[in-house]
Amino acid sequence: MTEPVDPIARALALPLWSQKATAVPLGGGITNLNVLVTDGPRRAVVRIGDDIPVHQIMRFNELAASRAAHAAGISPAVIHHEPGALVIDFVEGRTMTASDLQDQDLLEQALALVMHAHRDIPLHLRGPALAFWVFQTLRDYAATLEEGRSRHVPILTALLEEAGMLERAVGRIELVFGHNDLLPANFLHDGRRMWLIDWDYAGWNSPLFDLGGLAANNSLGPAQEEWLLTAYYGTPPDADLWRRYRAMKAAAALREAMWSMVQEIHSELDFDYAAYTADYLATYRAALAAFRTSS
Hints:
Layout: H1 7-12, E1 22-25, E2 33-39, E3 42-48, H2 59-71, E4 78-82, E5 85-89, E6 94-95, H3 98-101, H4 104-124, H5 134-147, H6 156-170, E7 176-178, E8 187-189, E9 194-196, E10 203-205, H7 207-217, H8 222-233, H9 239-266, H10 273-294
Antiparallel strand pairs: 1-2, 2-3, 3-5, 4-5, 6-8, 7-10, 8-9
InterPro entries: Aminoglycoside_PTrfase, Kinase-like_dom_sf
GO biological process, one term: phosphatidylethanolamine biosynthetic process
GO molecular function: ethanolamine kinase activity
């Protein structure tokens, strides 16, 4: 059995710091162990974690995306990396909440950053990069849950049938380089500008996934969703775009719910994944109902 990692000791053992460096756990992470290191005037975040195959997280991909996001002016700089650890500049700022991103001004800043990422990260991306197709992720999650004898096994068949219907509704897509995890906690505001962090799930994808995730994860209302689509595409959404968007929004919510189901049986972090699963299943079912009503 693998020995548990002491994140503080692991962070301080990196060959970056003076002997006076100190470290404290950084709250908020629900996938990785995060540590804030202070070394004189320098402050940095150390993200502790190896590849996570059950979530298709490959650290080479996170590193490439993080570097490209910094080069594009979207994310803090990568200071150091080695197997099991990624070190980035610390941004002194406020972590966004869903209620923050329901504010129109902050939502506009967040969408501008997402559009910037879609447009400009590919200009700086080096080496191979993964694709992120939510429906493949859902199928793989279902297999992982079956193998792990999850308490959610009885509902998996129905969820996969619904996912198949949503995949058919999305249809043909355009490709952008997406963040693919637009939880409010991945947006920071330093008082002057917004930052987008945590590129674990970055990869080529439809822009509708980031747009749907932004809406689902932050409980945006219909008027803001219409604004979101109009601002992104430069024209009001027609019935076809609404249908494809609502299908992808439901899939984004289902992915978050099934991600949490997998965490329930695989994660050792101290977090109430059962409650998180229940919350996102409710979000998914509401999004699915909206899709079906509009179809």
